[in-house]
Amino acid sequence: MDVINSVIDFLNGIIWSQALVYFCLITGLYFSIRTKFLQVRLIKPMVKYIFEGKDSKEGISSFQALCTALAGRVGTGNIAGTATAIFFGGPGALVWMWIIAFLGASSAYMEAALAQVWKTEIDGEYRGGPAYYIEKGMHSRWYAMVFSVSTLLACGLLLPGVQANSIANAFNNVGGVPNIASGVVIAIVLALIIFGGIRRIAKTAEIIVPFMAIIYILMAIIIIFVHIDRLGEILGLIFGSAFGMNATFGGIIGSAVAWGVKRGIYSNEAGQGSAPHAAAAAEVSHPAKQGLVQAFSVYIDTLFVCSATGFMILMTDCYNVLDQATGNFLHIGDNATMQALAETQTVGPQFTQAAVTTVVGSFGGWFVAICLAFFAFTTIMAYYYQAESNVAYIFRHQDSAKRRAVTLVLRIAIIVAVLYSTVSTATAAWNAGDVGVGLMAWINLIALWILQKPALATLKDYEAQRKAGLDPVFEPEKLGIKNADIWNDINKRRLK
Questions:
Q1: What is the DSSP string of 336-371?
Q2: Shortest CA distance to 76 belongs to which of 422, 469, 460, 385?
Q3: How far apart are CA 249 and CA 37, in angstroms?
């Protein structure tokens, strides 16, 4: 295990260098400019399209696709990840999470639109994602295979472990539940759902994700209201720390940027290449519609859910900040729980549990553990679907029996990975997850730069049709986009 952890740490240091942090920021800024900041201009249709569209025999509705994508986005990164960003980057890391979310909304549009443009139909279901648009748009099968294998590794083995580990630790922390017991329960429920395919996953996400997100945000509003007298002080602390103007945290501005962007991307997945798999499954008349829905999902994840976590732990002083360069604490929360966590340098959902407990008592720990369980579990479901979409890509030219056999192996593998991760260390799980996220992000972001022309063409065509008073319909040939023949069948079915 020590050897494996050393290898993971080594890869993490290479993949998640400062280069990737700034590449994500630059990419988001560039696409924001190229799309004329669609994340601001088109906010109204973003919301409108969430509730438009119906599912079909081949695809799911826009709302189901949004919830499935949010299932991947809203997870342990929103609760434990936000706490980790503050632990290593200070309160200012929250601002950089907001910045990467705002800029990343444009990247989310680009990847979702491309996923729709070059989706395909396999075994009667829409499939798509970076591997599909890389092969069809870039005409590079080897590069598509690299992404596909990386996604199988990340979503099938590495990333589910972070979510399962966080669930197990949260229940162990609040109720002494053995980690392996949590692992068994997670594995059984996961098996019942993933063996039902994308429709069962989408239906489950459609019910759980909105309900739990609303409940969690309402709890945050209650805590903020109780400590409303500190709101101005906390806002000053957040923004002052983000830009090096706070005396206590000014020396770790680099960490604020790095950890804010790192945990922001881990949470909202903008540009990472995971959300396009669900986006491709949506039944829509134009790729831009689902692109806009996915752009808005980044806001829901980071500006709402991550912010809820950040404000809860900051306003209740339930956070610690560690200067990694010196190994010294710059801040330790003024309560016994934070003192104890500082002694072991522990960070995770315990910060959020402690914050809620200060207002609602011992129920707070269970509340956060339950929220985290639902958030993280739906994320594991989303990861499975993303991995399955890449199995379908790799074996798409094989007969359906062989695809089913490989899919069965994937299902067993992800269940085993979930079980194993619940008894591994949190640090090992997070580092492994970071390797998966970083690898996918590098490959996908490069593809987005290369394929920006057709992605931007979908937005231009969508806006031109709207300006003409039409409900936008996608006809790839008119835009000079090739290898998107599936849209001929989609448009024929739509006219029936």
A1: HHHHHHHHTT--SHHHHHHHHHHHHTTHHHHHHHHH
A2: 422
A3: 31
Highest mean pLDDT among 196-200, 260-264, 400-404, 448-452: 448-452
Burial of 304 (0-12, 13-18, 19+ CB in 10 A): middle
- How many Å apart are CA 375 and CA 369, to the nearest integer? 10
Domains and CATH numbers, the chain: 2-495 (1.20.1740.10)
How do residues 294-306 score in pLDDT, each as one tens digit?
898 888 888 888 8
Per-residue pLDDT tens digits for 120-165? 988 778 889 999 999 999 999 999 999 998 888 888 877 787 778 8
Distance CA 150, CA 222 (A): 41
Q: Tell me the residue type at 11.
A: L
> pTM of this prediction?
0.85
Q: Which residues pair with 322 in a beta bridge?
A: 329
Count Cα neighbours of 35 within 13 Å in the Cβ-side half-sphere.
33
Taking alpha carbons only, the member of 306, 281, 305, 307 closest to residue 294 is: 281
Cβ count within 10 A of residue 183? 21
Residue 398 burial (10 A CB sphere; 0-12, 13-18, 19+): exposed
